[in-house]
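Example record

The entry below shows one chain as it appears in the dataset: sequence first, then structure tokens.
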Amino acid sequence: MSQIWALLGVVRGRFLLLTLSCVALGVALASRSQAGVMAVGDALLVLFGALAAHAAVNALNEWSDYRSGLDLRTRRTAFSGGSGTLVARPQLLGRTLMLGLGSLLACALIGLFFLLRKPQLLLSLAPLGLTGLALVLLYTPWLTRRPWLCLFAPGLGFALMVLGTRIVLGGPLEGRDLLLILVPLLLSNNLLLLSQFPDIDADRAAGRRTLPMHLGCEKALWVALTQWLLAYGVLLWGLFGELGGAALGLLTLPLALRATWLLRREPLRVRGLLPALGLNAAVSVATPLLMALGLMVL
């Protein structure tokens, strides 16, 4: 039982809530396109595939960070620096690699199942799946060494979850779907961006080049502010369209404003950084979930 809890640690189980939120948004968009008709079994299978993809990238990241020595240098917080599971239990290193690769294989097989069952989705679904698999495999060894790609990779991954869910359960995309998907993309970018602030020294020692390292924390914070403004701007625009229910996500705006206030002067000041990271995590998870709820109910 203790090993099971440890393996949940290497996949960072509590952060999988973001996957649940993004899949919920995809389900809500698909439900709107299908006039409420939804195959529950398909929805659960899509959710399992998305969770497997997220678990894979987390496990592979933990495996790589321990092998590189990064985990031994990181100033770990509740919202950054990895789980610390392998530091405490290095004997799980091999199982962590197998868990990461096995989860990735499970995700790929689920995608292949839907392609074989719905070949009409090949041109729309296959590129998303291949891009997602590439992001999982390349994130830690390659993308974390390219600041701007590292910024957009997390958001793209979660946006692909929403898109894939929408396509599998609801058929061809519409322009309004693509616009709303910008919200989880931008917010997920910020989730990883701000969590890199405490890790600058450790990341530098491991050969990474993240945006806070490249621009400095003050300029990187302006990037985060821009992404928050764009995300909430999309939700404000949605008030005047057919998908106005998604604007329920605006309820998290005070949390983003509070995080900005805490970081306004010294982004690395611990007293403000840790609460801001918590607020940022809440914004990233709650906003797509509220959007989904609004689309379903309003």
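Notes for this example: Residues 40-68 form the longest helix (29 residues). The mean pLDDT is 92.
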